[in-house]
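In the previous chapter we treated chains in isolation. Here, by contrast, the input contains four separate entities that must be folded as one system, with a combined length of 700 residues.
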Amino acid sequence: MATMQDVARRAQVSLSTVSYALSGTRPVSDATRRRIEEAMAELGYQPNAMARGLASRRSHVLALIYPAMEKGLGGTVAEFVSSAAETARENGYHLVLWPFRTTQAPEVRDLVRQGMADGVLLMEVALDDARVDVLHEAGVPYTMIGRTRDVSDRPSVDIDFERTTDDAVAHLVELGHEHVAFVNHSQASADDGYAPTFRAEEGFVAAMRRRGLEPHALRVDESPRAGREAVATLLEREPRLTAFVTMNEIATFGVVAELQQRGLAIPADISILSIVTSPGVGEMSNPPLTTLHAPGAELGRLGVQKLLSLVDGSRPSTPNVLIPCVLEPGSSVAPAAGRAPDDDREPAAR
Amino acid sequence: MATMQDVARRAQVSLSTVSYALSGTRPVSDATRRRIEEAMAELGYQPNAMARGLASRRSHVLALIYPAMEKGLGGTVAEFVSSAAETARENGYHLVLWPFRTTQAPEVRDLVRQGMADGVLLMEVALDDARVDVLHEAGVPYTMIGRTRDVSDRPSVDIDFERTTDDAVAHLVELGHEHVAFVNHSQASADDGYAPTFRAEEGFVAAMRRRGLEPHALRVDESPRAGREAVATLLEREPRLTAFVTMNEIATFGVVAELQQRGLAIPADISILSIVTSPGVGEMSNPPLTTLHAPGAELGRLGVQKLLSLVDGSRPSTPNVLIPCVLEPGSSVAPAAGRAPDDDREPAAR
DNA sequence: GCGTTTCGACGAAGCGCTTCGACGGACGAG
DNA sequence: CTCGTCCGTCGAAGCGCTTCGTCGAAACGC
């Protein structure tokens, strides 16, 4: 493998001149630069990543701490990871995967100290997350996907749950729905400090109250069976329900199945609006679900960009952002039963 | 950040002795080793990854070239990636993500030359894949997930499509099914040289013929709509069909929907056995699908282990392996219509 | 015309580690 | 008691690059 020294010899210049030509840190005359570029091309030269990293104290590696979930990763996570990796690459960085859960803060600290990563992206932060503290103390640039309890000055990008739940409620209310239930993630997720469970619930409750409506929210285990039971519970609590907002993909399938089994047609009798969904999930139901799908790819891109602005002072800094979910029309939402047909159109959710 | 020099000073030994104590490359007395370990603990020492990499010419990084698919990644890919990352970490390696499609062999070559990765894991190899050639020529250790056209001596792990399709057919035949159709991936995937499309089709055809049965295989686009159309096409071709084997998750939902719409009960009238499925997909149908699910996690683990055995001569080498999919019972497969009820049990798939 | 900038290039000192050759002392063999 | 071995340790030479200080020569001002 050709080294920078080889290039220098071939171009009849000193090693350092090659380095400057490559980095642009100091001026190099056009003639010299040309000779160097030729030499590099002829030798197929590629700078050695380790040497460069050692000398510059810049590994050009970003680490992504992702949830090593037992349940397997959902499509949103995959989309996020993929988009993050791609964005990193476009900017000359590598993305390494660090599978660490909230409890593994010490491991994170050790890895960070090895200087392998210039910055860290932290997915699925819990409300109280020791990993964040570790990163903060270590002084490594980092960006959270999600937010810790205190909505502090810590750099983050996140889904805008308030906006998303409000959009969902608004969409349904415009169609005449007044009795709407919310199928949330499980109690177990809440116990783990999984933030979306709280933020979405609060958002839904607020959105309903704001419109003078009674919110019916339920935390439901991530299983079709629990989804079926949720329908039973919620319909008992409020028989006049005409719509469900769901943020629990697996349970949603149970909800659909149970409603159909009870002879309730979707969307004629009951509407279902599934929020924060993974790509393609809507299509897997019959009828296809109307969804507000999670902006996984966008989060990945923005997260990396934000992190890079922290790592590399020369890039424009980007502010903390909240991204709402995007409406993807399906066939599971219709005007509330009993409404005049001229209300038939579905207004945009935004 | 403490350096090895700091540790050496504190433990009153030379730099090199610390290095030997850490690596075990040369003997170090117990007393000395103890002093060194104490010093390391007191300083919170962690060896610098870049320096170590430069000096040893070992980055301790594995690269995973994964399909930067437009369609978004499926659960199997996510499971694979996650398991690969975890296995790498358990062995003291990092996993970096390189999103490159088949056409980006030059980019792969450049990155490899930068010496960032000790070895490369290549997902979703196409039948003819320039990336493999590049890796081969560069002399980097690599392992393919999947296989190229010539079933050569190239290191790989893969799903055992023959076995999986044969298991599927066997399972159905034991239940009395004689007219079975296969819903494959799309023609487009075949045109891209996507190997599973071919291997599974060949496997299915062979499995049917071996039993004296007529195979009905169809390549179907990855959409529910195409799945519905496939049902129409196949039922027209062979009205006596009692079972579908599907290897196309999105289309499968269309298949289910179309059958139900035609008043055909699943599994009473028609059985559906979905193969090479992502985790959790079965539960998303109503009734839940019986599946042979893809061993994503196992492939990830074995792929990394194989690669490490190539990278690091001191590890036991592992042979090329083919892993079959695993039966996950659901409620979409039953004895063929018209069969006696005493045949009611579902035999194990192998 | 001479001193002073400015520009472009050079040499050398690291970055923090691995690894090779060497060496002193303890120990067994003769 | 002496010589050869082996064990444990040390010093130094890189690994391939970045970056600082420096310096010659061309360009400039008065």
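The mean pLDDT of chain A is 91. The domain at 61-159+297-324 of chain A is CATH 3.40.50.2300 (Rossmann fold). Compare these points with the single-chain example from earlier in the chapter.
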